[in-house]
Write a structure and sequence with these properties.
single chain, about 30% strand, 11 strands, 7 helices
Length: about 220
């Protein structure tokens, strides 16, 4: 019998390792898997690569990941702390202790989608001719300059949804879905925290992400 619901955080994050790449869902505060993120620091993992829309959300969950230098590289669309003083991750980047790749948000989403679809790279006019395209191949199509972008994949995807059934089918509430559906397809292992576990299979009209893309589901309260 298929049952992707795990009993605790240890089972959810089993196999998480140093040097892993992690896609972490979320847009603003919607869909941030805060419980899973907070559980990473006590595991004493190092050399992690984070792929996330806004990196400040990691600090809002648990500052230890950056304070203790556990993150080596970040691929993100927004790299600013919440205050006037530089955040810890900004300081590390300026010191050359943190690798950083800034990606336009639409390109970020498409690179993840391409990773899940098995498309290794694609051309887009976004960022062509700007500093963000430095070092990348650029070509003209129909008289318009485009930049070659490579797909993004990760070892793990950490997501949050409103509801799941034992098959791993997911229901997202509103903008909670954001990058989650694409990230689930582009990761080797997808782990999802949810507020509700449905005793019955979710009806088809409520399934926003089929369970075939989900490996583990953990019921966890929302952390504000």
């Amino acid at each position: 019998m298929i049952n992707k619901v795990v009993a605790d955080m240890a089972a959810a994050l089993d196999g998480m390792r140093s040097g892993a790449s992690l896609m972490i869902g979320g847009f603003g505060n919607a869909g941030i898997p805060a419980n899973l993120v907070c559980a990473l620091a006590p595991m004493e993992l190092t050399g992690l690569t984070l792929i996330i829309n806004a990196i400040r959300r990691i600090d809002e969950c648990d500052k230890a990941l950056f304070d203790e230098g556990r993150i080596d590289r970040v691929i993100t669309t927004a790299f600013r702390g919440p205050g006037r003083a530089p955040a810890n991750f900004e300081v590390q980047w300026r010191r050359g202790q943190l690798g950083l790749e800034i990606v336009p948000q639409g390109t970020f989403a498409e690179r993840i989608r391409a990773g899940g679809a098995g498309i290794p790279a694609f051309y887009t006019p976004t960022a062509a001719g700007t500093d963000l395209a430095e070092g990348r191949e650029q070509r003209e199509f129909g008289g318009r300059l485009c930049v070659l972008e490579t797909a993004l994949r990760a070892d793990f995807a950490l997501l949050r949804a409103q509801k799941a059934d034992r098959f791993g089918n997911l229901y997202f509430r509103g903008t909670q879905a954001n990058f989650g559906t694409a990230m689930a397809t582009a990761a080797d292992l997808t782990i999802v925290e949810v507020e509700e576990i449905s005793a019955a299979p979710l009806p088809p009209e409520q399934i926003h992400l089929p369970g075939i893309y989900v490996d583990r589901v953990l019921q966890a309260p929302r952390l504000d």
